Each structure stands twice: as structure tokens, then as C-alpha cells.
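We store chain and fold; thus.
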Amino acid sequence: MIKELRTYGIEELPTGWTVEHVGEFAQIGTGGRDTQDKVPDGKYPFYVRSQTVERINSYSYDGVAVLTAGDGVGTGKVFHFVEGRFDFHQRVYKVSDFAEHVWPRYFYEFFRRHFIRQVVRYTAKTSVDSVRMEMISKMAIPLPPLSTQKKIASLLQTYDEEIELLAQRTQLLKKRKLGLAQQLLTGKLEPVSVE
């Protein structure tokens, strides 16, 4: 199975790591809802085929899951890590009910970074119309010991949170700069030397 991992740039595994296909350690399924089922101010998150999370008044799953778009512009690019009650679109795949030796957040971190390569491998083209269940179930995942999975997931999650905070701060600074420029360039504010 190490041959399959070469697609992800992995030539060999550290001691103690194993490789399994997703279908060997998790359940995979699709939702039963359509986009028209969304409700503004609904009680539960409703995952569709985009990064936007809609709302709905029903839930079909309660637990930890990783979701990905099954078709549309989000194919191989849209991923969600979910804990709790939610519902999901009929063309959204849910990976859940992980075996005890797989930390769901670790799986999410690996899956969202490498799934597009798996999709391309199956379709032999870079723009993909849809995902088939087999693309997910037969994807090889390197699995370190559970304690290492938890550390990797925690570290990557911390960095993602920091990146998100920096992105928000950058947006805020851009808005402030735009407002300041408007005031300076219209003479409403007198420039102050920054020397």
C-alpha cells in the first residue's frame, strides 16, 4: 500500500505507522436532503456542496463526521469537520463512525489536504465533475499511533486557527485603511507625520 501513498509524496513510513483504506476504518454515506430543504434560522447546520453552511430544522446524524462535496464546484475542495447534530445534502459525502485506532480530526487534516490527488488519480483529469464512493473508500491513509495522530491534529488545528485569526485581522486592517484613505484623500482628515 505504500505505493498508493507515493501520490501524496510519501516514500516510506516511520516505524509504528500503518496504512489502511478509509473503507476499512470508517463508514461512508451521502445525505438525503436537497438544497431547497434549507430554512433561514433553522435549528441545525445543513451542509451543502459549498463552504457555506446553511440551516435546517432536521438532523440525520449526531456525532463526529468529516464531510466533502460530492459534485459541483466544491468537488475535492470543500471539507467540514463536524461534531454534533446536523443534516446534509444528497451529494455530500459523510465519513463517520471511525474505528477506535483512528482519531477523526487527524483523518480530516490528512483527507482535506490530499483527497484531490485521489480524485485526480481516479479520473485522470484535474477538473472533476463528481466523486464516487470508491474514491473515498479506497483512499490509503497513513496511520501513526493514536497518541501521535492526536498531537498532529492538535498542532495543525492550532495553526489553522492562527491563520484564520490573521486573515480576519488582515481584513479588518484593509477596511480601516480604506476608510482612512477616503478621509485623507477627501480632506476630511489632516495627515500626521509618521517619522
Observations:
- The chain is about 35% helix and 25% strand.
- The mean pLDDT is 90.
- Residues 18 and 138 are 15 Å apart (CA to CA).
- The radius of gyration is 21 Å.
